[in-house]
Amino acid sequence: MLDAGSYLHLHPSNSKTLPQFSAVMAGHFETQVGNPLTNLNIVIPPSTTVAPLIFKQGRTRTVLGRLGFRFQSRQSYIEGGLEGGDVLNAIQAFVFTTSRGVPLECRLEASRTLTSCINTFNKSHPATPVPTQSHVSVLRGIQPRYGSYTNIGLTVPLHPIVSYNFKETGDFFFNSRGDNSADTRFRHTIVNALKFKIFPSLSFEPTYTIFFYENKVDYHTLFQQQYSVKINYSFDWTNWHEFWLQARFKKPNP
């Protein structure tokens, strides 16, 4: 993801002192890190054995404009507003090549999965099934996206060396024409962490992360949780004469 934009300071006016209340005008871009792999378990008659059909579905690119408000203090912030734009190459359907080169088009539908689409066709056409070596192409189009977003970061000091950190990023997209079950209805990532400061330059954070998701059309939900420990260390590459001091203290601000 990439975010870029501007803050228009509203209060206190013409000042950058904190806390600060600002209007947000920003652009948001997102795509997958890599080309997603899709694995479908299909049956090729007359065999009843399940075989994998694996293919790369290609990345999508989403561009959104955001307009909202932000309250910023020295260690915490709360931001939210409206967003709108397009998925520039949204997936509409997959086209599978059968054993005789005849294309089978499976559109994204809530009532039928891709696996069901292929297996139903193979059962009805045992002489010309979709094989595991099938060539797969993707039908794409521009899909509008409109909704709201939130971006929250809170830091609560509990002790001189212990603090509680909370972060939340979320999107809620309104229903629009052309939606299918691969589209996002809402998604929220919530991160809870206890930060223990060993030195000013070294800390570790036991972290609990929650991901909550729902798609459009049939509104299936996904809930994931993750436990981890993060170790944060900052150092100065330009000065190695006093290594122990650098391990304990950050580089001073100019």
Number of folding domains? 1
How helical, in percent, are the residues?
under 10%
Q: What is the typical, i.e. mean, pLDDT? A: 90
| Radius of gyration, CA atoms, in whole angstroms | 25 Å
Report the count of strand segments: 12
- The secondary-structure element order is EEEEEEEHEEEEEH
Strand content: over 45%
Shape: elongated
Measured between the Cα atoms of the first and last residue, the distance is 31 Å
The quaternary state of the protein chains shown equals single chain
Task: Please provide a written account of the structure.
- The model has no long low-confidence stretch (mean pLDDT 90).
- With 254 residues, this protein is mainly β.
- Strands 1, 2, 5, 6, 7, 8, 9, 10, 11 and 12 form a 10-stranded antiparallel sheet that branches. A two-stranded antiparallel ribbon has the order 3-4.
- The chain has helices spanning 114-124, 243-248; strands at 2-11, 20-31, 37-43, 50-56, 61-72, 77-97, 103-107, 136-159, 162-173, 184-199, 202-215, 221-233.
- It has one domain (2-248).
- The longest helix is centred in the middle third of the chain and has 11 residues, at 114-124.
- The two termini are 31 Å apart.
